[in-house]
Write a structure and sequence with these properties.
This protein is mainly beta. It has one helix and eleven strands, in the order βββββββββαββ. Strands 2, 4, 5, 6, 9, 10 and 11 form a seven-stranded mixed beta sheet that branches. The termini are far apart.
């Protein structure tokens, strides 16, 4: 009932910045939190950041803390991820996710994720 479409991925040099967007549509009224995950080739899909639907709180993986900023425009039903100081280790497909749960622990472990986007590729060159 919820569709998520990511955009903004691309190629960037190390140290550069990108801003990802995720447009949500459909029945979003049950969504309490949204999040970003990423998956590098041959690796697991890892939690990046999460935010309450009302934008009141955020959570970040240690690997991106102080470099990435998650935000949400509730009126536009759009999630954002501002990525600064990018490193080749950040290269991955980034996925947008929506959750009916406001428990970040459940969200980070993916057990609370109800909908996934199809992903957008971010490539950071050295």
């Amino acid at each position: 009932q919820v569709q998520l479409v990511e955009s903004g991925g691309g190629l960037v040099q190390a140290g550069g910045s990108l801003r990802l967007s995720c447009a949500a549509s459909g029945r979003t009224f049950s969504t309490k939190a949204m999040a970003w995950f990423r998956q590098a080739p041959g690796k697991e899909r890892d939690f990046v950041a999460a935010i309450n639907w009302n934008g009141g709180s955020t959570s970040y993986a240690d690997s991106v803390k102080d470099r990435f900023t998650i935000s949400i425009d509730n009126a536009k039903k759009t999630l954002y991820l501002q990525m600064n100081s990018l490193d080749p280790e950040d290269t991955a497909v980034y996925y947008c996710a929506a959750s009916y749960s406001s428990d970040y622990s459940s969200v980070a472990k993916r057990r609370g994720i109800n909908y996934w986007g199809k992903g957008t590729l971010v490539t950071v060159s050295s």
